[in-house]
Amino acid sequence: MTANEKFWDAEITTAKRGKIKEIQLERLKKTVNHCYKSNDFYKKRLDSAGVDPDKINSLEDIEKIPFTTKDDLRDNYPFGLFCTPQSEVVRVHASSGTTGNPTVVGYTKNDLDMWAENLARIMYDAGVRKEDVIQISHGFGLFTGGFGFLYAGEKIGSLVIPISGGVTERQLKVMKDYKSTVIACTPSYCLYMAEVAENIGIKFEDLNLKLGFLGGEPWTDSMKDEIEKRLKMKALNSYGLSEVMGPGVSCECLEQNGLHINEDYFIAEIINPDTEKVLKNGEKGELVFTSLTKEAFPVLRYRTKDISYLIDEPCACGKTFIKMAKPIGRSDDMLIIRGVNIFPSQIEEVLMKVKDLEPHYLIVIDRVNYMDKIEVWVEVSEKIFHEKIMDLEFFEKSIEDRLYSSIGIRIKVSLKEPKTIERSEGKARRVWDKRKA
Ligand code: DLL
Questions:
Q1: How remote is the CA of residue 327 from the centroid of ligand 1, in Å?
Q2: Which residue of 24, 167, 316, 399 has the smallest Cβ count within 10 Å?
Q3: For residue range 166-206, what is the model confidence (pLDDT) as tens digits?
Q4: Nearest CA to ligand 1 atom 16
Q5: Residue-range domain boundaries for the chain
């Protein structure tokens, strides 16, 4: 691998599709064999589906392999799906496990190196260089966000600030004093930083930020516009999940119209979540990933529950890796209200386009007299709240109409005083479901 001026590894990221598929097939065969030979769970699964790992002859054969789910990970808690002896595993990460056993994932030394390579490539291709100063405001700990960016930044040779999330005034001081040029955090945290900066009189136009790798949660194009406007930087959508690796599975290039998947390390499929049938490129469904090089914790057809679609068209950036559309949310975050399926991101898309609203909202679901009720709390700007220059009731009704014409059901809007909705330093909570309380 040799980096050129534009690409970290042009030989692979701009390779012909046929070449990429060749690499994928060779690595898929290896991975299926590795799982089969080193792990009882996978052996039983493959045997019961009649899959002979030595008979994977084409990429289409992947469809014969059974899916792996989060429940499989939980049932084998903590280390049951590891495919190397524990002595080879040098790191674990885990989900928070608020709804059951956490899911634990392991990495060998090679896995950590591969992770760094994946994300370094993404960042370098978006313009990050040795001279850059990368502020990592993702959490460090069992969450994968912080460490992924740390390894990648160091691999490029940039100066990395592992500041983690929180203590926002200090974050901003560091950003100013150390002249951070790149930031990695959740999009909701960016907006919180923008608000704190305004309060303490820091202006982003006076800082050096130029690029953000933002992810860990769903966010809309309108949110991107807001972040770019307020933080005076380009905001790229970065996607990943611990089960598959962490951040670095896919990310937008500077064209910002889809997230290139690191296809020499992962095969992506989209399935219909109900029938499990594989869908065509362009059709919306659940993302499924198979890892191609992982040693300690390979995954075969892991069902992510994230809803997206694949975009197989040439990209002006020059990379030939297929793209995925930004995930609109997880199937288990989808709200079904009076028979209509809604993702919180659809509500966000509407709210963010309304002038005089702040980008802070909470969707509140309740059941009253056996009927589901949906309400959205959203903050208004300081100006219209304090100067009372608008009839707020009329304003609420006009937002309700906009939501209705875009989503198709009536959602009650409740305008809130500025700075009353909880801010997020990591993944934002967008829904409060009182039915589950
Ligand atoms: O959130 C990994 C990550 C860290 C990605 C930092 C990007 C930046 P988990 O905690 O395992 O890992 O959560 C993974 O978060 O299945 C999605 O539902 C959601 N998610 C992550 N990135 C995005 C994104 C990390 N860009 C889960 N857009 C995933 C939408 C995202 N959802």
A1: 9
A2: 316
A3: 999 999 999 999 999 999 999 999 999 999 999 999 999 99
A4: 241
A5: 1-330, 335-436
